[in-house]
Amino acid sequence: MVDRRQFIATALGLSASAISGLPAAAATMTYDEAVNTSRAPLQAAPRDRELVRFATLAANSHNIQPWIFFARGNEITIAPDFARRCPAVDPDDHHLFVSLGCAAENLILAASALGWRANPVIDGDRIVITLEEAPPAESALAGAIPVRQCTRAVFDGRPAAPEILRQLESACREPNVAAILMTERGEIAKVTDYVLEGNSAQMHDKAFMSELVSWIRFNEAEALATMDGLFSPASGNPSLPTWVARPLLRFFFTEGGENRKYHEELDSSAGIVVLAADRSDKSHWIAVGRACQRFGLQATALGLKYSFVNQPVEVAALRPQFATSLGLGERRPDIVMRFGAGPNLPKSLRRPPELVTQL
Questions:
Q1: Where are the alpha helices (DSSP H) in the chain?
Q2: What's the pTM?
């Protein structure tokens, strides 16, 4: 009898050892079971495992999950996993450190809900978080952690109420990080032009396209084999066998098609927010990540969806022009997100805490 892990490996052309790092339970789960396990309600114990599990539900570029956690006593450290970096889209590791900031924010919020005050300190490449006992503090943002997802779908086009916009803008408040919130159709159209120009440049970049495709998981079996990457149905695409999807990709994943999708997605959005730090270094990128994660959680708590449209900040030649259009001067625009009301899509997977934690 061939077990599920062996079957998946055979179907994907992988050796059994390629996925042997997954816990045995994960290898026997369906896709939905794996999603529900990673996104289960927060439990008080085991504390460190639960905090790491909630931290890994953070937004991160290409769902590469570029983090390693070290837990000892009342201290949890989040360190970069440079083996999972994306040099084509993120040559200076900007997105990687923003992702670490997103994970830190999740961990801090989850710790507070369990009765621990989390005190983060940036130590070089690492975020060292010391935990101190405190009264439990439930929050709408902590409650949104297992529900939040980036939704690349067409939204309903309705504007957001002023109070909603105020709460979204408030969620982005972080020292040395500015948030530019745009809801006027003319402003959104200008950003859309930069997104489309950036998308065209990326789709003509062979290194970018090769890297992106390497992180696409075309079906449930492929996603379960790695527990990471960009799950096709989570972007509104069908689940197909890899041997079918990969050859067809060049016919359907085109510059014109993607530009039309982005135009529709942005045109249907209630607004756009751009985050920009005062300085461009690792500690400030981590700060941007914390603000970015709170924005996503606040949007989720308010019943909204959101997704990233980072092309204008990822294409180096385009970034200064985009910054000038926003009145940022020499500051680097770090993150671009659209938001609005839209449908639920399948959620992406996360590697279990056992694979990303060293005790």
A1: 4-12, 24-27, 31-38, 47-55, 94-113, 140-144, 162-171, 185-203, 206-214, 220-226, 242-252, 255-267, 282-301, 311-314, 319-325, 353-356
A2: 0.92
What single letter denotes the amino acid at residue 130?
T
Give dist(CA 223, CA 75) in Å, integer: 32
The boundaries of the domain holding residue 96 are 4-148+348-358
In a domain, 78, yes or no: yes
Task: Indicate whether 48 and 72 sit together in one domain.
Answer: yes
List C-alpha distances in Å: 227 to 26, 151, 156. Answer: 9, 18, 31
Check if the beta carbon of residue 106 is closer than 8 Å to that of residue 76.
Answer: no
Cα 63 from Cα 215, distance rounded (Å): 8
Residue 122 and residue 9 share a domain:
yes
What tokens appear for 133 in the block?
A: 């006992």
* Alpha-carbon gap, residue 109 to 138, rounded angstroms: 9
Coil vs helix vs strand at 99: helix
**258-262 long-range contacts, CB within 8 A, separation 24+:** 258/199, 258/203, 259/196, 259/199, 259/200, 261/152, 262/192, 262/195, 262/196, 262/199, 262/309
CATH code of the domain covering residue 98: 3.40.109.30
Is the dihedral angle over the CA atoms 215, 216, 222, 227 positive or is it negative? positive
Note down pLDDT in tens along the chain; length 359 residues.
334 334 333 333 333 333 345 655 556 899 999 999 999 999 999 999 999 999 999 999 999 999 999 999 999 999 999 999 999 999 999 999 999 999 999 999 999 999 999 999 999 999 999 999 999 999 999 999 999 999 999 999 999 999 999 999 999 999 999 999 999 999 999 999 999 999 999 999 999 999 999 999 999 999 999 999 999 998 888 999 999 999 989 888 999 999 999 999 999 999 999 999 999 999 999 999 999 999 999 999 999 999 999 999 999 999 999 999 999 999 999 999 999 999 999 999 999 999 999 97
